[in-house]
Amino acid sequence: MTLRRTFDLIVAAVCLSLASPILLVTIVAIYITDGRPIFFLQKRSGLFGRPFTIYKFRSMKINDLPCDDVTEIRSGHPLVTSVGSLIRRYKIDELPQLLNVLKGEMSLIGPRPTVPEQVEGFSRFEWRRQEIAPGLTGWAQINGGIDINWADRIMLDVWYVDHRSVWLDIQILFQTFAVVLWGDRPNPRRLVQAKAHTLSQQATD
After folding, report:
1. pLDDT grade, residue 10 (50/70/90)?
2. 150-180 per-position pLDDT tens digit
3. Distance (Å, whole) CA 156 – CA 3
4. What is the dihedral of CA 135, 140, 143, 145, to 10 degrees?
5. Which of 17, 139, 187, 195 has the fewest CB atoms within 10 Å, counting from its CB?
6. Is the CA virtual torsion 172, 178, 180, 182 positive or negative?
7. Which helix (H) or strand (E) holds 107?
8. Contact yes or no for 37/57 (Cβ under 8 A)
9. Domain coverage including residue 15
10. Which pLDDT band, with edges at 50, 70 and 90, does 3 fall under?
11. What proportion of the chain, given as a percentage, has pLDDT over 90?
């Protein structure tokens, strides 16, 4: 077992234990205000494009939206429930993915897993984000998250793939708490850095 996998298992287990009261309150709140199902399950692409089922707390009313549309829901969307708005703001809806981490389908840190339909259309450069396990949080999430466009997130993800280290992962983990408290905030300096790295990589292809 690698050091990274051991780190994932220990931290995920501790976080699940510490977050258990929040998980229980969330389950009850969703059930009382909007009924079942409590969880939202969706196919995502993992390491090297291998599919797996991601776990999230359901934050939206039951709907027939295409799976691509459900990955880019922003604040104020009419289908987001009252409880859903709160748990999305503080990332509580993502906590069940700690189970994905324990199962080895995800890591704590890495590019966010996207739907298989999107991965099928990736360019060779974009595919590079699939070279490592997807994460519960990542470099793109602490540098803008959903408040930056998809192309910028891809560049940040590939920058992370080429520069990741245990120290960087620890920084991302702690900065994630700031995102939870203060919300997503684009980081122009990191975006410039990622774009420069992208240009250098594409020039050598």
Report:
1. very high
2. 999 999 999 999 999 989 999 999 999 999 9
3. 24
4. -90
5. 17
6. negative
7. strand 107-109
8. no
9. 3-204
10. confident
11. 81
Q: Which residues of 143-158 are buried (b: 16+ CB within 10 A; e: fewer)?
A: bbbbebeeebbbbbbb
Q: Model-level pTM? A: 0.91
Structure tokens at 113: 């897993």
Q: Which residues contact 122 (CB under 8 A, 6 or more apart)?
A: 130
Residue 108 has φ and ψ, to the nearest 5°, of -65, -40
* DSSP assigned state of 113: P
Is the Cβ–Cβ distance between 140 and 157 less than 8 Å?
yes
Exposure string (b/e) for 164-198, b if CB count within 10 Å is 16 or more? beeeebeebbebbeebeeeeeeebeebbebbeebb
CA dist., res. 55 & res. 52, Å (int): 10
Mean pLDDT for 125-154 is 95
C-alpha 179/C-alpha 134 separation (Å) is: 19
* Tally of residues, the chain: 205
pLDDT digits (tens, 9 = 90+) for 11-45: 999 999 999 999 999 999 999 999 999 999 999 99
